[in-house]
Amino acid sequence: MVSSQLLGGAYCDCFVHLVARGKRFEEGAIRYFPQKRNKPDLTKHLLAGKETMSTRTKIIDTPPKIIVKKELNLLLINGSPRGERSLSRQLASSFIDSWRTKSIAGSIIERDVGRNPPPFVTEDWIAAAFTPADERTDRMNEVLTYSNEAIAELREADIMVLATPMHNYGLPAATKAWVDQVIRVNETFSFDLDRGDFPIEPILQGKRMVLLTSAGEFGFEQSGIRAGKNHLHPHVETIAHYLGVSRSWSASIEYQEFGDKRFEESKARAFSKLPTIVEKIRSSYMEKTKGEGRDRAK
Fold this sequence. Notes:
Blueprint: E1 18-19, E2 74-78, H1 87-101, E3 108-112, H2 123-129, H3 138-143, H4 145-156, E4 159-165, H5 173-182, E5 189-191, E6 200-202, E7 207-214, H6 233-240, E8 245-253, H7 261-290
Parallel strand pairs: 2-3, 2-4, 4-7, 7-8
Antiparallel strand pairs: 1-3, 5-6
Domain Flavodoxin-like fold: 73-268
Family: Belongs to the azoreductase type 1 family.
Pfam families: Flavodoxin_2
């Protein structure tokens, strides 16, 4: 039964540049705590003498100009192991710049899984995840520390930006590891055999997702000459349901290994789409709330 509840046998990390609005990303993992000015107790996050993400937590207090009634929190997952040369990172940085030009209130959290790979799922992890919370041992709770923190960030996010290169026609291992850490039974999905042949249902809902990708080759779109080799976009579209995503957008750079005019044109097209995507996300929350008698954005 356990394997069936792992969403097809699946089960990520890196911590985060967590940046509050209005400031550049900074080196290392940081985390934004609204209304808090004291660093949290980090003792409980020290596992077996190793530094965890939480031991590198910093607090940034830079409130933005508020133009929405409800804050829109954004979670950025950077999956590339490369630094500034990474095209997916460049897309993510440009997207964040466009997001900030709208002065949208809310936090921006970045988990840099590419540079700080998450732990892989182990037998101990599976045993802990499928043990009721009130029956877990201290060791089990330690094993789930990263997963708990990553899931908490996902819950708080209204928008998730997944920026990742294509590796061997699919997700990089570190990005997949993050997915496996956050898609967890009784946390982001439920399992009930009374539902018949489709016992799995998502717990989270209403989120927006932006997928930003880069690839060395080209033609990975549905009608493209390499559509059958694209195991990145279909995979993300499938798991997005269990991340609580209801609407999504994407921008992709191709031809990287060719380095010719087609590459430059592909890059220009991808970057040009980002401001429009930002506006569509912002508008989507206005559309959603009109029928509810309240507006989230003006």
